[in-house]
Amino acid sequence: MEKKEKDALKSALKRKEFINHGFALFVRKSIDAVTLQEVADSAGYGIATLYRYFGTKQDFVIAVSASKWEQVFESYRRPCQDMASDGERAVDIFSHYLTSFIEIYKNHKDLLYFNQMFNIYIKAENVEYNVIQPYQEVIHILEDRFHRMYLRAQDDHSLRTDIPEKEMFSATLHLMLAAVTRYAVGLVYDAGIDPEKELRLLKDMLMKEYTLPQD
Question: How many CB atoms lie within 10 A of CB 204?
Fold first, then answer.
């Protein structure tokens, strides 16, 4: 491996270290309570090294969010691609898409907790759109996969396409993400409920809303 490649790999690994340590601190203490100096100390580097990768705390927080969501979306990418390449119906891909939110609730509650803090932080800091662009680009990855499913639905007529694609994507994303986040952060008032059962009910309601009857 050439020196440039080694240096690039070393740089990428160091950036990932900062992100992982920052994420762990944010989840444990909250975004507002953590300083970049604490992140640098936790990762075992000087603050000047951290600033070579992230110019401000806003940049760092957004990079953490984008990186963590990208990891999660990537873990669910392969099954969707396999289903699409195998010629699965759009309705089956849609079902997997909705189920993936329930899986995120089961396996990534820390990310959902962080995401709740992230949304509050972004709003409180009045972060401009161009600054949050790395995070938006990750969401666009999900949107692109939804688009391909929607195109499949136009061919196999297993899902409604009379509803605009962007409206359908926005509604399903926000409803599922809001629900799994609420359960993950404990914003429920009945200790006897079964969150996964209620999330499956929400999924079934969305499936009923968007699925077309088959002959």
Answer: 12
